[in-house]
Amino acid sequence: MSAAEVRAFLERHGLLANRNLGQNFLCDDTVAARLVELAGVGSDDVVVEIGTGLGILTRALAARASRVVTFEIDSGLVRALRQEGRLPETVELRHEDALKADLLGLVKSVKSDNTPVRLVANLPYSVSGPMLRRILDLRGDLEDWSVMLQREVALRLLAAPGSRDYGSLTVLHALTVSVTKQMELSGGCFFPAPKVRSMFLRIRPLSEPRLEDAGDELAWLERVVRAAFSQRRKTLVNSLRGGAPELLADPEAIASWLEQGGLDRRARAESLAPDQLLALARKLR
To answer: Given 28, 123, 172, 177, which is the most exposed site by the fewest CB atoms within 10 A?
Structure first.
């Protein structure tokens, strides 16, 4: 499907790419097929797709998977796709906001017969952070997930301690999953063409979990690291004191703990490795 065909499809249905929804539609069937291959989709898999768009990636997924459940928030696109019958019979199109949908219930219902479930998503910048965090809660039930992200967001998941892109999202992923860069795409693969590049990442749950499921350690860790990175120019202790004072009953005790671990008591959150931030979270708890 070329950019001209995408434009014609939208015009037939009186639609425009919605900037508020971050709509940049994939318009290269060859690239779509390659993305599905990189996502590791097999004939026995059920795929949950977030962001149907014009259905180009959806059709490529359906060509390999046994079933695809795809979510699209734009009512105009859902109507147009249904009117033109563009999706195969093995695709279930849901007009629903994936940020609010019961994704866990869906995945568990599919897994009831031990069917492998993968997730594939093309995430606009505005919802990428919240959606990535939400998917982490599904890590115990998904084989893996592959996501298309604006390059700026993708670099946050791949960042090393001390770098500009290193932050709370990096830490949460480093302690729960492995993240692999699969492909980088230029704006020309989309319509309308964005001014930024995109990255396609494949994310797999760690084979040996680092966090304790009991007591929801991920939620506690998130609370601590978001506070720690809330004021990046300040020391870790001051960021915690400003971002979540209720967590820090004794700032001096934490400063001493840092020194005992061979760290400067004036260290900033960005200088601590994920393991060190996990140890801090456990210390605070």
So the answer is: 28
Q: Where are the alpha helices (DSSP H) in the chain?
A: 3-12, 29-38, 56-62, 75-84, 103-111, 125-136, 151-158, 168-174, 217-228, 236-243, 251-260, 274-284
Indicate whether 214 pLDDT > 60. Answer: no
Domain-terminating residue out of 205, 233, 255? 205
pTM, rounded to two decimals: 0.91
> DSSP state, 213?
T
Query: Quick one: how far is CA 247 from the chain centroid?
Result: 27
Quick one: 200 and 122 in the same domain? yes
Q: What's the CATH code of the domain at 51?
A: 3.40.50.150
Average pLDDT over residues 161-182: 96
Helix (H, G, I), strand (E, B) or coil at 255: helix
Residue 174: what pLDDT? 97
Helix-helix angle 125-136:151-158, to 10 degrees: 30
- Pairing mode of beta strands 67-72, 144-150: unpaired
Q: Are residues 184 and 221 in the same domain?
A: no
Is residue 210 in some structural domain?
no
Contact 48, 69 (CB under 8 A): yes
Q: Which two tokens stand for residue 28?
A: 């290269």
The token pair that represents 283 in the structure block: 């210390």
Check whether residue 225 and residue 252 sit in a common domain.
yes
Q: How many CB atoms lie within 10 A of CB 213?
A: 9
Residue 178 binned pLDDT confidence (cut-offs 50, 70, 90): very high
* Number of domains the chain contains: 2
